[in-house]
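Protein: Multiple sugar transport system substrate-binding protein
Species: Demequina lutea
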Amino acid sequence: MKNSLIKTAVTGAALALMLTACSSSGGGGTPNASTSAGAAAGGGGGSSSCDNTITKKDLPTVSVWGWYPNMAAVVDNFNQGHDDVQVCWTNAGQGNVEYDKFQTAVTAGTGAPDVVMLEADRIANYVVQKALVDIKSYGYDAVKDNFSAGAWKDVSVGDSVYAAPVDGGPMGMIYRTDVFAKYGISVPTTWDEYRAVGQKLKDAGGPLLGDLGANVPAVMMALEIQKGATPFKYDPTKPADITIHMDDQASKDVLGYWAGLVKDGLVGTQDQFTPEYISGVVGGDYATYISAAWAPGYLSGAGVGKGADAGKFAVAPLPQWDPSNPVSVNWGGSAFAVTTQAKNQALAGEVAFGLYADPASLKDGWTNQIIFPLNQGVLTSDEFLNAKVAFFNGQQANKEVYIPAENAYKGFTYSPFGAFYYASMTTQLGKINNKEIGGADAATELQKTVVAYAKEQGFTVTE
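Structure follows.
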């Protein structure tokens, strides 16, 4: 059974297609870092040097892999503020590039760093391989109030905490204010109203309502969860058992809804995060973009909102399936986990909880639109709350949309083979976009595919 579960994780890593996202990683569809042997804490990674300069050379070091764009500054901030430990940082690659290297080290039993940056939906994949440490006893109590229950759930498996949260992706609806004004459109608050907007635009010869990218299955999973679906139930105390529900009514309804938008020509079917898609966003081909709080940084970095389209974007809360029971969902988010190869797990835990947690690093991250921080010290600050976001033409997007969404988010339990699930969802979304299949049939096929895979890997599946 153990070998089967490890095979599951390795196969999942090989199938990963950048289908999950976080504000700065790009893993998930967002666009797209060698480690010294350290003194007491050690460190793997197979490198003889750090990507940063350590000035307090007599202190023990903890090796870290991470890809945040401002990681060099974050590491320097940590090292300057600590006299008991220093971070030796390596840019081992972003998203799947890092995951492939980490998987190689996990399989070999050597070469992993002490601390590794992971997207939340990858954590269970490594937990099932016993590659990560439960860090609840290494500083959790001191920082637990700094994050919401939802943020902690995303980095936990069962009752164990496997990573320290940093950033997240509460979802909202970005829209073109010029398009809405031209066609007399009110901001939709429900998915029924959203569809009506698309029909109005089509009838008037306007742009597409939005886009159903087959390469962003994490979005579809989030929208299904918003409607009440629970794709997976997994308890690490019973590692061979998993519950899979992908053909429930909520999932069929959501896939059917989007299949209907495609069939009626209300949304596009372009893969997102491609030059063609970005060109369409810049050119006003889409009236809306269903995305997460990290999107402004990504879009502006890709050149959106910097030319003739500058000042033409705003954001509103995500439309709801049931306005009397609003549900907040998340797309993306990253955290720091301690690996079982760490030579000093307690010291590595201190680094995981303390890295990218100081005020200077957090401020640099959110002011430069690198991350949407989950630290409550930032989320409750007047500066962050009242910030006027340049990409949204000065709109106070944090206060109006993203902070309420994050505060309402309850968290999610991911599966130990999320990459395979995402790849399978991508296949079904591709069929929907090609009008080969309806939503209900896509859900049924997805259920069959993922259940068969789980059983093949040795899981006992409850449907």
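Remarks: The CA atoms of residues 182 and 374 lie 36 Å apart.
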